[in-house]
Amino acid sequence: MRKNNIQTIEDLQREILVLRAAYQMQGDALKEDTRLYLKQFTFGALIRKYATPSAFVKMDDKLNISSKLMSMVLPVLMNSTLFRGSGFLTKALVGLATSKVGKTLDAEHLSAIFNTVKGWFGKTKKKEKAVAAIDYGIPPDSETY
Asked: pTM for the complete prediction?
């Protein structure tokens, strides 16, 4: 506890002003700290924190979201595109097989497949080989050069 030697009324007034200023500064600091604390729970802050690719991969490792999604989407996609005119039995077998395949796919497999397909359609320019001068071991300042 702080002890003050207040002897006069001016000392008392000065101490009251100092305490009020300290009170005001502590109140402002508390408001600012509260505002910063609550700001981390806004919708935008939560999106920035949890909607990153690394966070998705970590979350996907725990919950295996991508494999569950692929096991549902892949049969529908295959039956509505490649096996459109097929019969019920063929569609059922394709749905069963693609759902099993979809369960084995995870985020890493999907990103590898995406990068492979992207590489197929990426730059297809042929690299021209640079023709280098052939060195026969003859110094350039000789007469036979």
From this structure: 0.37
